[in-house]
Hints:
The protein contains 14 helices and 16 strands. By secondary structure, it is an alpha/beta fold.
Amino acid sequence: MARTATQSIVELVAAEARAAHAALPSLTDERVERALLRAAELIDAEADTILAANARDLDAASTLDDGALDRLRLDERRLAAIAAGARATATLEPISRDVAEWTLANGLRVAERRIPIGVVGANFEARPNVAVDVAAQVLKSGNAVVLRTGGAALATVTALVDHALRPALDGAGVDGHAVGLVRTPARAGAETLVSLPDLLPLVILRGSGASTAALVRIAAAHGVRALAHAEGGGVLYAHGAADGTMLERVVRASLDRLGVCNRLNLALVDTAEQEELVRRVSAELGIAIAEELPPSREWASEPNVATITLRLVDGIEEAVRIANEETSGLAAAIVTDDVEAAGRFLDGYRGTAAFWNAPTRFADGFELLGTPETGINVDRSPGPRGPVTYRDLWLRQYRVAGDGTQHR
Length: 408
């Protein structure tokens, strides 16, 4: 019987995962640091090649909306930022593997340790910087990775892997296959990535809400743990005691980029004057006002990306309720000069990051933690939450030593 296209893709992804697993013994902290520093150098040196690949992707991306094109597009400044992120990750302290030790009453010596997961999968939107951000974080944690990007960015990500990441790993004494890549734009590549629990027990998922939610369901059905970053959108609440000048500054700072998950999505205001201020600033920035926010959605993933939602609310309690119940839980900010009001808002909000007189654009691993993130996990359950970095990508293990006399 002839193989189907899906069977071929399953074999392709499995082969990448097996090769990545074989590379695990070469992933020492010192080698990974050297590899990431070299990768940053190669990104700079191979800029023309990478930007040419990105230009091909952009030329072929005729159906993408403005927000998606913004996420896909690279220029010299953005490429330099990718290299800077790799350098920043390289020089951070490695994960401390030893957590604690103690001795039980029966003489057993117990040690709690952090150990690598193995091979981590990563499926992400057509956003080339995420390839290096995720690869660097996973490698820094002592794990290998298999990347799968949206088809629109495949040429760019392939250039980053083949001209920067893999040569840097090989040059540092690490098997370059520690960074795998699903080299097909077919959706079956993503579905396979979340269907191989023995090879890929954890998969990081980033992208649009509907497609990522579908992958989470497939992962759950196959026993694969998913860290999903499917929705975003920042909330900005203007309290009645907000200074107008400060409010205007925060609104502007919240809308410096549109195609990102942490920009202003929903503005809540206490007064008609504040409503008029937000409308004026939005108009000056070319941003339209929508009356209703799609439930748990961000405008950054919509075709009409240059849009925010604006609502007049009846004080802190209503603002907190809306932020908690009607948005993704990524981030919310309050602008106010009232310390007590700020405390009530910050205490009441249950999302991953709460801001006071500062824009939600800083809900970002690099900005808050000094290292690029693999994504922002908004799950309301124990485990990595908020910006996920290499410090979160490990398993807990207990090591127990006795003298042969212990029994229960």
